[in-house]
Prior knowledge:
- The structure is a single chain.
- By secondary structure, this protein is mainly α.
- It has one domain (9-226).
- It is 74% helix and 6% strand.
- The protein contains seven helices and three strands.
- The chain has helices at 9-36, 47-57, 87-90, 95-112, 116-145, 148-186, 189-226, and strands spanning 64-68, 75-77, 82-86.
- The chain has a three-stranded mixed β-sheet.
- Strand 2 and strand 3 (82-86) form a beta hairpin.
- The longest helix has 39 residues, at 148-186.
- It starts with 8 loop residues before the first helix and ends with a helix.
Amino acid sequence: MYYGYGMDFAYLGIVVLSIVLGGITQAYINSQYKKWSRVPASTGRTGAQVARQMLDSEGAPNVGIGRVDGHLTDYYDPRDNNLHLSSENFEGGSVASVAVACHEAGHAVQTAKGYAMGKFRTALVPVVNFTQQIWIVVLVIGMALGLVGLTQLAVALFAFSVLFQLVTLPVEIDASKRAVKYLSTEGGAIDEKGARQVLTAAALTYVAAALISVLQLVYLMGRTDSRN
């Protein structure tokens, strides 16, 4: 990014850090998933089957389970109240498959039990969808016209994305804790160990994303203040 002073090395550093952290965390989760995808779960059931049992026993029996294309594209959608599991985790019976499926079931249980941070995150979704689309436009216009008020507004809009990233952390960690706790009682020691490693690796991707977002916000705030 440029501000009329030549290349901004601080921003370039953030970009490089985001690429490096993203690559490291993605490689780590892929390695952990690959490792534990070779280990059969002690339950002897598929990810979808174990997730179904977890949903039924944890107070979310009305949640459906379906398939979605792609690798590690699993998610829970509160709008249709369904788990969407990739084929490898829907029909796979490995520790990794069961861990991911139960993590998504954890999100459904959060919704069923009215988990406060989950409700807050869901409420932020439409706001963040809007602010993500316009903050950079407002920033560019503010910079081009030299309007400090607009640049400050752009930073405030971007702050909602940072807030969303920060709120996502406890939501994801809680869903993983629910999954590990369930597997520790319904599965076995190997299921608990593998699930903890796979889901910890996944959580690090959210930590990295939140860290980069915070650094970007601090950077933008600093540049805005320097132009006052």
